[in-house]
Design goal:
A hairpin with a 4-residue loop joins β4 and β5. The radius of gyration is 25 Å and the shape is globular. The longest helix is centred in the C-terminal third of the chain and has 18 residues. It folds into two domains: about 200 residues, Rossmann fold (3-Layer(aba) Sandwich), CATH 3.40.50; about 190 residues, Nucleotidyltransferase, domain 5. The strands form two sheets. Strands 3-4-5-2-6-7-1-8 form an eight-stranded mixed sheet, covered by helices on one side. Strands 9-15-12-11-10-13-14 form a seven-stranded mixed sheet. The protein has about 425 residues and is α/β, with parallel strands linked by helices. It is about 35% helix and about 20% strand.
C-alpha cells in the first residue's frame, strides 16, 4: 500500500486525532481522499465505520458508490465485498451508511464505531451534532468531517472551524492541494474567477457566503442579529405558549413555539422538527417542555384524513387529545412570506433552542435561476422549507385579524362595485 496515490495535504487522515476536519472549495479531492483513507485503514485492521450525512433517504444519497469505485481503483477487490447497502472487509471491517437528521435515535446505538465519516457536513444541524458526538465514545474512536462551507452561522463551521474542539486537526483544502486536479475543472475555475470573483471565492476557495444566493429572509435575519434579537429568551411560565405547525409524515414536521407579550412583541422560545413520527410523538415532546399551552395553529391540510399514520385528520386527533386547535388562514405563499417579513421585527428568538429552525430560515431561498438568469419567484423546496413554512404559518396566524379585516373590506368593495347588477 506504500505506492498508493494520496494528497499530501490530507496525510493527517492517517494520524490519530479525535476529529479530522477538511473543509474548502470544489476540486480539493476531500471526499476521494477520505474514501481512500478509510479503505486503507480498514484493510490494515478490522474497523467499524459509519458513513453519515445529515439527510439520507436512500443508499444512493450516500458515499457508497464513491467507496465502491475506490475499492476497484485501489485494487482492493480481494479485500472487500461491496454489498447493496454496506461494504464488508474480508478481515471483519464493516462500513455502513445512515442519515443523521431523521434517524438520530437509531444513531444512538453506534457507540461501537471506530470511525464516523460525516460527508457534506455543512448541512448537519446543531441537534444532530449534540446527539452524535457523545455517542461515539469507544476508546480511540474518531469523527471525520468533510464539507464545503456555506454560511459562517452554520453549526458545523462554528463548531469545527471558528472554535474547534480539543483533539481536532482542521485543514482548509482547495484545488491547489489536489495533484490530480483535472484540466476541465481548471478551465471552469478560471472562467468563474474572471467573471464573478465573489462566487469564485465561495465555490473554489471555500469562503463562506454572507447569505445564501436568493435568500428570502437574509435582511430580516441580519437585522435580528444586529439588534440582538437572537439571544437567550426567557419563557414566562404564567403566559400561554402557542404552537405553529408545518405538517408532514413522509416529509418533515416542523413546529415553532412562541409567546405573545403585552407590548406587541413575541418571544419565539423553541423549535421542534422530526420525520416519520406520529402525532402522539410530537404531543409528548410538547408536554416535556412544561409550558402552559394556548392555541395550536395548524395549516388547512390538517383537515385531511390519514395524515401522520392515522385514518383521522390531525385536527380531530389533536382535539381528542385535549388541544386547542385553530386553522391558519390559507394564503398564497408570497403573501405568507410578506406576513413573515412584517412579523420579524417583533420577534426575539432563543438562540440555542431555535438554532436549527433559524438555520432553516437562513437557508430558505428562491428557486435557482432559469436559463435566462432570472431567479424564479417560487421558494426552493428542500430541508429549509419545513421550518420556513411553519414560520410563515406563525406570521399568518398572528396577522389573522388584519388579514380577515382586509378581506372583509375587499369583499364589501366588490359588493359595492357589483351592486348595479342587482
Amino acid at each position: 500500500m506504500t505506492n498508493i496515490d494520496f494528497p499530501i495535504a490530507l496525510g493527517f487522515l492517517f494520524e490519530p486525532h479525535r476529529y479530522k476536519v477538511a473543509y474548502g472549495g470544489r476540486g480539493g479531492s476531500k471526499s476521494w481522499a477520505f474514501a481512500r483513507a478509510i479503505l486503507i485503514e480498514g484493510a490494515k485492521r478490522p474497523l467499524r465505520v459509519l458513513c453519515a450525512r445529515e439527510t439520507q433517504k436512500s443508499i444512493a444519497d450516500s458515499v457508497h458508490k464513491l467507496l465502491a469505485d475506490q475499492v476497484d481503483a485501489l485494487g482492493f477487490s480481494d479485500r472487500y465485498e461491496v454489498q447493496k447497502s454496506s461494504i464488508i472487509g474480508k478481515n471483519g471491517t464493516e462500513i455502513f451508511f445512515a442519515g443523521l437528521k431523521h434517524n438520530i435515535n437509531n444513531i444512538r446505538s453506534v457507540e461501537s464505531c471506530d470511525i464516523v465519516w460525516v460527508e457534506e457536513a455543512q448541512a448537519v444541524s446543531k441537534e444532530s451534532w449534540r446527539v452524535l458526538i457523545p455517542t461515539i465514545r469507544k476508546d480511540g474512536s474518531e469523527i471525520w468531517i468533510s464539507f464545503n462551507p456555506e454560511l459562517e452561522t452554520d453549526d458545523t463551521y462554528k463548531r469545527f472551524v471558528l472554535d474547534p474542539p480539543p483533539g481536532a486537526r482542521v485543514a482548509a483544502i482547495t484545488f491547489r492541494d489536489n495533484p490530480r486536479f483535472p484540466e476541465v475543472l481548471r478551465i471552469e475555475m478560471e472562467h468563474l474567477r474572471a467573471r464573478d470573483r465573489r462566487e469564485y471565492e465561495h465555490v473554489w476557495e471555500g469562503k463562506c457566503r454572507s447569505a445564501m444566493e436568493g435568500a428570502i429572509y437574509a435582511e430580516e435575519i441580519k437585522q435580528a442579529e444586529e439588534e440582538g434579537r437572537i439571544t437567550s429568551v426567557a419563557c414566562d411560565r404564567t403566559r400561554p405558549v402557542d404552537t405553529f405547525w408545518d405538517l408532514g409524515f413522509g416529509d418533515a414536521t416542523a413546529i415553532w413555539l412562541a409567546q405573545a407579550l403585552e407590548n406587541g412583541q413575541y418571544h419565539v422560545v423553541d423549535y421542534i422538527e422530526n420525520h416519520a413520527k406520529t402525532l402522539e410523538w410530537y404531543l409528548i415532546q410538547l408536554q416535556t417542555k412544561g409550558h402552559l399551552y394556548g392555541t395550536d395553529w395548524i395549516p388547512w391540510d390538517g383537515l385531511k384524513p390519514q395524515r401522520m399514520g392515522s385514518g383521522r385528520s390531525i385536527e380531530d386527533l389533536m382535539r381528542a387529545a385535549g388541544r386547542n386547535v385553530r386553522m391558519v388562514t390559507m394564503l398564497p405563499v408570497h403573501e405568507g412570506i410578506n406576513a413573515a417579513r412584517t412579523i420579524f421585527p417583533q420577534c426575539r428568538f432563543d438562540a440555542i433552542k431555535c438554532a436549527d429552525g433559524l438555520q432553516g430560515l437562513r437557508h430558505y431561498q428562491w428557486g435557482l435561476p432559469g436559463a435566462n438568469g432570472v431567479i424564479r419567484r417560487e421558494p426552493l423546496h428542500n430541508w429549509a422549507s419545513h421550518p420556513a413554512d411553519a414560520f410563515r404559518y406563525l406570521a399568518t396566524a398572528l396577522k389573522m385579524p388584519q388579514i380577515e379585516a382586509r378581506r372583509a373590506s375587499e369583499a364589501r368593495e366588490d359588493a359595492g362595485e357589483n351592486a348595479w347588477m342587482a
